[in-house]
Amino acid sequence: MMATRRRTYSSGSDASDRFISINERPVDDISLEFFYKPHTITLLIVIISGLIYFAFTRDENESIQSNIQSGLVAMVFFFLIISIMAFPNGPFTRPHPAIWRIVFGLSILYMLLLLFIVFQDYRTVRSMFEWLFPDLTNFTIDMDKGEWGEKCDDLSFARLWESIDFFCFAHFTGWIMKTLLIRHYGILWTISVMWEITEIAFSHLLPNFIECWWDAFILDVLLCNGFGIWCGMQICHLMEMRYFNWESIKDIQTTTGKLKRAVLQFTPESWTAMRWLDPTCTYMRFLAVSQLVIFWQLSELNTFFIKHIFQMPPSHPLVFIRIFLLGAMSAPTIRQYYSYVTDPRCKRVGTQCWVYGLCMCIESLICIKFGADIFQHTQIRNIIAWVLVQAAGSLMCLYLCVTHHRLQRRRVIKHQDDSLDEDTEPDSHITSYIQSLPRKTVTLSTPEEDDDSDDEDEGPAKVQRRRKNPQLRRSNRLDH
């Protein structure tokens, strides 16, 4: 008989419990049980029926391209169905765990696609993109030329207003989403400033990195990045102060209330204030947060190199598909990495974080392999300086954050001590007043000590205590 294999965890293991909470979090409060009960048999019947229908009704003589695309779509669809049934929930359960299982399934497919591309040549990969998107056939990267770094001395309000376009709005909303994920002013501003340094270091390889000083520091850092960070942190503060009390939709009587509750299902179940750096953080935690900053730069850099190497316009759907996919992957990834860094009971990273890190490394490998002609013009001094500045800048900014937290903590402790001293001040006045009063000495003496005390000079008043004589009391009982 074949033994059944089950996923087991040791009972009482705190590390396993912490890993389950970030990798396969269960749904605590279920309002509608229908959406959380397994319907595997029903799903199997439906997908088999649909497969039979399309297999015999679809025109296979249309074109070989259409047949291959339909087959690929069917493969992805069935893989996502398997993802819903088999993959873990991750750290989130809203709006439904199936959504985050699909995200994890898409990340697996993206990782497999990147692995396939690594073993191809440039012409094959380019042909794949042209086959999926025929509009890329006649496009070259030279067509995407703009006024990069030109007329930098012409600084006026009209020039700034002309520079604001759709990408500025996308930049602004992107930083709001980044803030909702990281929720830390110091780390966010570090990433923002370090990215501008990254653009300067790689501007000799990527022409669209060439910017005027006012474009980099006024439009990017202050307006798009800074205002996006501020708006995102305001949303975080509102979510932290919110009281989450979820009422079952079955208990709501009005139709408006039911619709409102259904919409709120797409909001977080709870909100955790992230404390990446605290006054007592260890050096390993400090380095782990610095690693997050560097990985974030690498992820952003891959976006521009892939677009430039495989010659895609910035507004192409393939570019936005990748950005949206990585954004969906980043939400559970950062939550799992945060738990791994800050919680000593969590001994390993979550699966989504592991897959995301592998995808970033494979993307960098693809950029280096297929962008050999571009990297031949690399200025080694710029790259070495970029690495050193990234490391030193990240460590310095994070060190200042830790120092700020320590000073803030000391102020809080000092304020608490001062308030405690004010509360205890009346008691200290009463104690000092009692100690200043004249005291009267009271001495307890025995009858044998009284004879000696008569010969002494007058002194403080004494209180005599008679001692019971057990022999006298015994003789009195015998006389009676």
From TrEMBL:
Organism annotation: Petrolisthes manimaculis
Catalytic reactions on record: a 1,2-diacyl-sn-glycero-3-phosphoethanolamine + L-serine = a 1,2-diacyl-sn-glycero-3-phospho-L-serine + ethanolamine
Record flagged with keyword NADP: no
Disordered: region residues: 436-480
GO BP term, example: phosphatidylserine biosynthetic process
Protein name, UniProt field: Phosphatidylserine synthase
Biased composition (Acidic residues): 447-458
Function: Catalyzes a base-exchange reaction in which the polar head group of phosphatidylethanolamine (PE) is replaced by L-serine.
Pathways per UniProt: Phospholipid metabolism; phosphatidylserine biosynthesis; Lipid metabolism
Signal peptide (residue range): none
Biased composition (Basic residues): 463-480
Localization annotation: Endoplasmic reticulum membrane
The keyword Lipid biosynthesis is assigned to this record: yes
Any one GO molecular-function label of the UniProt entry: L-serine-phosphatidylethanolamine phosphatidyltransferase activity
Family from the record: Belongs to the phosphatidyl serine synthase family.
Enzyme category, top tier: transferase
Lineage: Eukaryota, Metazoa, Ecdysozoa, Arthropoda, Crustacea
InterPro entries listed in its UniProt record: PSS (IPR004277)
Record-level GO cellular component terms: endoplasmic reticulum membrane
Sequence intervals crossing the membrane: 34-56, 68-87, 99-119, 187-207, 213-233, 282-299, 319-341, 353-371, 383-402
Enzyme Commission number(s) of this protein: 2.7.8.29
The entry's keywords: Endoplasmic reticulum, Lipid biosynthesis, Lipid metabolism, Membrane, Phospholipid biosynthesis, Phospholipid metabolism, Transferase, Transmembrane, Transmembrane helix
A matching Pfam family: PSS
Domain of life where this protein originates: Eukaryota
Membrane topology: Multi-pass membrane protein
